[in-house]
User: What shape does this take?
Amino acid sequence: MHPVSAIAIAASKDQERLTQEIFEEEVGWVSWQRPGFDLGLVMKEKLKQDPSLKGLIMG
Assistant: This one.
């Protein structure tokens, strides 16, 4: 899913800070990467580091 609010955060100048400010510890952030298998690995590692995350904003 790509909710408009998540797209607005991901398209903002300071994406990582905004993600932290808005979602605190519930949603993580990963930098932009071409969609595909490698992005899936980055996301998997982020969730492995913090299994309590409810989602990720992709830069």
Observations:
- The two ends are 15 Å apart (CA to CA).
- The chain has a mean pLDDT of 94.
